[in-house]
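User: For documentation purposes, I need each entry recorded in a consistent format: the amino acid sequence on its own, followed directly by the corresponding structure tokens. There are two entries in this batch. Please keep commentary to a minimum and don't merge the entries.

Assistant: Recorded as requested. Entry 1:
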Amino acid sequence: MKFSAPLKKAKILKRYKRFLSDLVFEGEEICAHVPNTGSMTTCWAENWDVYISKSDNPKRKLKYTLELTDNGESLICVNTSLTNKIVAEALEERTIKELPAYEEVKSEVKVHDSRLDFMLTTTEDKKIYIEVKNVTLKGHDGYALFPDAVSTRGQKHLKDLIKLKQEGHNAVMLYVINREDVERFAPAEDIDSEYSQLLKEASKQGVQVLAYQCKLSPEEIVLHRPLPIEL
């Protein structure tokens, strides 16, 4: 997924009210939009380099959007709205080799009483349902962890995937690791033990659990390689 224009470097001073950040850009202090509802734990600290995009939309109150942060070891994508775009591109290009062969890709599919991110159809008219989660929390010993806070919505999605598998469909839980300074993925049991147990149960029930790390630059983000998973 290429950015519409190369991102510009700035320095972050603070994040506040969840969706706002104060930055220093080209010698001036500016306020930028932060498209992330999460805690962003391990994703920023004062005076880190960051990368921002600029909108030409005259109706936007804030011209700049915080896209990436840089901890000195890795870029980290903090714009969570990009994750499904990255995956959609990977699905169209057949990058995720662990998936069964498929023909068509549909996004935002209604299932039971919720929505899942993607549905793939095969030549035999079978369906593959995929839920995507953006992962940016870094733990000890090179672990990428999810979630970074208790996630009742995430728990519900796992229950949906288990039910779909029991109904005879293929079901996939895909974790997109949006930083390059980690080497493996695990559920954050200390943060959300219920989610961790549900993920283990989903795997036992036959839900396919995948973790893919992105390759990030100020020009583009692409799904790059699978990471080992420890449940």
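Entry 2:
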Amino acid sequence: MSKGERTRQQILHQGLVFSSQFGLADVTIGNLSSLCDLSRTGVISHFKNKEDMQIAILEYSELRFTEWVLKPARDPDPLTHLHQLFTLWQGWTVRMLEQEQTSCPLIKALVEFQHRPDSAVKRFALDQQARLLSYLGKLVQRAVDSHQLAPGTHADALAYQLFALNLGHTIAQSANPDPNSPQWFEQRVRAWLSPYQH
């Protein structure tokens, strides 16, 4: 990796840290230059503009999410895979960054940009979540096809419900953290899936 690539990775990592704490909308060239001990020119030379930088941070965050959540959650058993995915999704930035006051930057971006004017950043954040929802739908369908979930289960609808449950949990945990909330969430996921299981 060249020096320029290492610097870009450093900027993106600090962008992930900052957006996990304060949100993507507040990430600026100025605060990243301070965090990385670089000049503003040193930061912006790696991106076309602020929007391009924010999209790059979302791309980098998705790579880390894949590394820390999607890949380790994989299991030949689709129902186990599904449970492990939601378990690992909880607090993945806390584990990765070893910082308590952080939460999923991808969900933060979705919430932050949902009512903002159309922009490349908003479209990218929405597309990320649409792809993740599609991934969940395929995983639920695998569980149906393997007869672990009842035939006739609407995979996309159940995936949407689980996704919404996770979204609400993530926001609620940030607003009112409780050490028991991960356990409550996992109980809720099991309860939600129970009527669909044979």
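Summary note for entry 2:
Residues 144 and 151 are 6 Å apart (CA to CA).
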